[in-house]
Amino acid sequence: MIFMFGKLFLRIFGLFLFVAVIFTLAIFIGNYVAESDTAKNLVQSYGYLGILVVAIIGGFNVLVPIPAAIFTPVFLASDLPITGIIITLAIGTTIADVLGYVIGRWGHHSSEIRTYPFFDKIEDIRVRYHPFIIPLIFLYASLAPYPNEVIVIPLAFLGMRLRVMILPLFLGNLIYNAILVLGISGITELLKF
């Protein structure tokens, strides 16, 4: 029994260490790029549209989930206001979530998996726990360091409506990006000393 908890602790610690190393490397790379005149000119010339494209790509990248907020030093180096950066990142991430939703709905309409008893059990869970799904979406989008498609695609596959999911997704993305952008900008300021 103790061995099982030790193994679980090592897995959680390993995951935490992995995320911390990726986060630290991304901050250093972001700082390096922020000092680049080419990167500054690129962000200044494309502005919020460039941030939006980066957010869509970063928000939909399920294989290597690197949030677009990691590039905060680059965005800040172009003298764009921090609130505009946060809102643009949240909009881009929400657009990526909508693309994930479309994939899930397409799978729902084209799949034969609905004939299996497993689908009936999942559908029963969705119906029974429906009031908890919206808070779950909000909490996952605002706090989980994983792509939102992990929950958006299955919920879309199960027939959850986009109009029900869009507001908790956007608000969760807004909080998540605000935490990241403000945290990264604070760490960047500390590293300048």
UniProtKB/TrEMBL annotation:
Classification via InterPro entries: DedA_domain
Statement: the UniProt record of this protein carries the keyword Transmembrane: yes
GO cellular component: plasma membrane
Subcellular localization, as worded in the UniProt entry: Cell membrane
Transmembrane intervals: 12-34, 46-70, 82-106, 127-146, 166-191
Keywords for the protein's UniProt record, in alphabetical order: Cell membrane, Membrane, Transmembrane, Transmembrane helix
Membrane topology of the entry: Multi-pass membrane protein
Protein name: DedA family protein
Species this protein is from: Candidatus Kaiserbacteria bacterium CG10_big_fil_rev_8_21_14_0_10_43_70
